[in-house]
Amino acid sequence: ISTLGMHIEMACESALAGQGGGPASETREDDDDEEELGPFHRLNLQYPGIKRIHQNPDLYAVENFLTHDECDRIIEKARPHLKPCLVNNERNGKVERDPARTSTNANLPRGEVPTVARKITDLANCRADQLEILQVLHYGEGQEFVPHTDGFSGPFTACGFEQSTRLATLFCYLNDVEVGGSTYFSRLDLDIRPRRGTA
Q1: What percent of the chain clears pLDDT 70, i.e. is strictly above it?
Q2: What angle do CA 136, 115, 95 make, to 5 degrees?
Q3: What whole-number distance in Å separates Cα of residue 27 and Cα of residue 30?
Q4: pLDDT tens for residues 103-141?
Q5: How confident is the model at residue 51, as a pLDDT?
């Protein structure tokens, strides 16, 4: 089991309204990006160990975000429930299998891993009810998810939310691998190697 995928999504309206208060209004060192990109969700840039990997688009990493015990607990909880991955087909609105994504996944209730949920809300600068369902992904040998984006062209209904959109993605590596397993950002030519516990 290689990654715990966590998507942070909130209603479009609350993202725009958040400019005036609440977690979305925290200050950020590079407010100039907002003029170029428009309103977006601000992470907790004071989170211990956070470091910027790339700017515009913003990519951050936190080593040792998860403990080895947390990684093991997530794997143990998810393993019996792994099933082929499904994707949201924007053309027909259905959630279905896609040959572009050959991995398996399992959903994990936040209540099963409360320490992980707290860390995610602290880093993402949001409330627990603004989190999408935790997804544990397993990539076996030769499995992949071809280049894609985690965003959607507009509000959708899935993963426990109605008419919402995804504002940020947080994923954590649950184990180390000798070969493969990296996350490649093709437009940036940036390859992130997996390290257990890193977000």
Answers
A1: 68
A2: 25
A3: 9
A4: 888 999 888 999 999 999 999 988 888 888 888 988 888
A5: 95
